[in-house]
């Protein structure tokens, strides 16, 4: 319900944006002079990373413009532009290039930028029960497990789920 309400409001703002910024457009009309609009494309990856790309679009036809971005969700508008977001079914380029699973000193399964080191943490997941963890797996985490692919990312998380250690709350 909230998503449809939000989308309705965004469409209303977009309509206002279109009326103010590009009054020369009719629904399917081609124009003599294109308008320029800043478009911000946000890509949200499985690992939580969000990348942004800014492009300047020359719009000759609103119909063609919307077709180009039909796979994207309009999330906001601003003075002379639009912000679109897309959920990516993949891990971020950062993880593919330099991401490693590892373990922190307190036993938390963590992703590092490069080989495991306490100062280059990208994302932490959950604490592992080190006593139940096989020494081979513990050593792998200490040295770092390269991620490279979405499948590897999912496999490593699934492999270490059984070693999850609930955090005890102080009373």
Automatic annotation (TrEMBL):
Domain Bypass-of-forespore C N-terminal as annotated: residue spans: 37-87
Domain Bypass of forespore C C-terminal: 89-161
Coiled-coil ranges from the UniProt annotation: none
Signal peptide bounds: none
A Pfam family that the UniProt record links to this protein: BofC_C
Protein name per its UniProtKB record: Forespore regulator of the sigma-K checkpoint, BofC
